[in-house]
Each structure stands twice: as C-alpha cells, then as structure tokens.
Amino acid sequence: MTPEALAALHARCFTVPRPFNAAEFRGFLVSAHTVLVSRPSGFALGRVFTDEAELLTLAVAPEARRNGHGRALVAELEAEAMAKGAHRVFLEVAEANVAARRLYAAAGYRESGIRKGYYRHAGRPAEDAVVMDKLLKRT
Ligand SMILES: CC(C)(COP(=O)(O)OP(=O)(O)OC[C@H]1O[C@@H](n2cnc3c(N)ncnc32)[C@H](O)[C@@H]1OP(=O)(O)O)[C@@H](O)C(=O)NCCC(=O)NCCS
Question: What pairs with residue 63 in β-bridges?
C-alpha cells in the first residue's frame, strides 16, 4: 500500500488518536525497523528494535470488520516481528476502544499498565491509554 492509501484508510478508522498522514506513513516506511502487513481491507504497522516490537497501529475498513482481518493482521505482524528478532510486542490502545482491547486480549495480550491522559486533542478531554503486551513464542 502507498503512504497515501495507508493515510486514506487510517483517516476512515481513527479520530482518537488522530490518524497518521501520508508524510508520517512515508517516514515509517523508509525505516528498516518498520514492519507493515496489509491486505485490501486493512493493515497493521509496527516497528522492531532489538528484541522488542511495538504495534503502532491497526486499521480495518469499517465495511470489512468482524471477518477476522484484524486478528489475522496482528498474527502476521507478530510473525514478521519475530523474524526480525522480536521476543515481545507491546502497544497502547485507548481505554474506551473496547473492540480493539477485546481483539488484543483474545490474541493473548495482557494489560500491563495505564498511561494517564496519553491521548490529548484540542477540544476533547484527554483519554488514558492502556498498555498491553505479549511474549512471542518460538517453535
Ligand atoms: C479494532 C479493529 C482493528 C478490529 O478489526 P476486525 O477485522 O473487525 O477484527 P476481527 O474481525 O479480527 O475480530 C477479532 C475479535 O476482536 C473482537 N472484536 C472486534 N471488533 C469488536 C467489536 N466491535 N466489539 C467487540 N469485540 C470486537 C472480538 O473478540 C473478535 O472476535 P469475534 O468476531 O470472533 O467475536 C477494527 O474495528 C478497527 O479498525 N477499528 C478502528 C481502528 C482501531 O481501533 N484500531 C485498533 C487500535 S490501534
């Protein structure tokens, strides 16, 4: 997917946190640390530093949801991160994002902390982020 296509889909999926724009996606994509897995209906973006991966964002088009794409994208991103040497994945998710928190919990992520007021946007109350993480199993 191009940076423009990623930004267009992201804008359809996010208000909090705000969507990344095409320039931000372009910046991620030039880094050797970045992992992107995608399909026409969605994508997952992460980065790997040494043995730790961060799942930066996950987006599935509204009309394609509840078909297992989100779950599959997370699994694909984990596999790519493991191939790059990651042993653990962590992420932040808005406390009110019940759909994503359920998806991550079902995928084996545990809630390991809270970042108070992590999401700040003009004109809205700050929102807490839940930190979740998962140890990746090697076969
Ligand atoms: C969160 C998101 C990625 C889920 O994508 P999806 O393709 O619909 O997810 P899946 O179909 O793989 O669902 C996997 C599981 O997650 C949970 N889940 C997903 N959407 C849910 C919802 N709306 N309500 C409750 N649980 C939900 C369920 O446990 C589901 O399993 P089930 O369908 O067997 O019950 C999608 O809703 C989205 O893009 N949301 C906007 C962006 C976002 O919040 N991204 C994640 C934060 S970074």
Answer: none
State the pTM of this model: 0.96
Instruction: Calculate the alpha carbon distances from 23 to 7, 96, 126, 135 in Å.
Output: 9, 28, 25, 32
- Rounded Cα gap, residues 68 and 74, in angstroms: 10
When pLDDT is cut at 50, 70 and 90, the band that residue 113 belongs to is very high
Neighbours of 48 (CB within 10 A): 21
* Catalytic-residue membership of 63: no
Q: For residue 137, what pLDDT is reported?
A: 82
Domain ranges of the chain: 3-135
Give yes or no for a contact between 60 and 42, defined as CB atoms under 8 angstroms apart.
yes
Asked if residues 37 and 44 have their Cβ atoms less than 8 Å apart, the reply is yes
Please compute the mean of the pLDDT values over residues 114-118 and round it to a whole number. Answer: 94
Please tell me the CATH code under which domain 3-135 is placed: 3.40.630.30
For this structure, is 104 an active site residue?
A: yes
Tell me the best of 60, 63, 67 to mutate to test the pocket of ligand 1, counting ligand atoms within 8 Å of each CB and taking the most.
Answer: 60
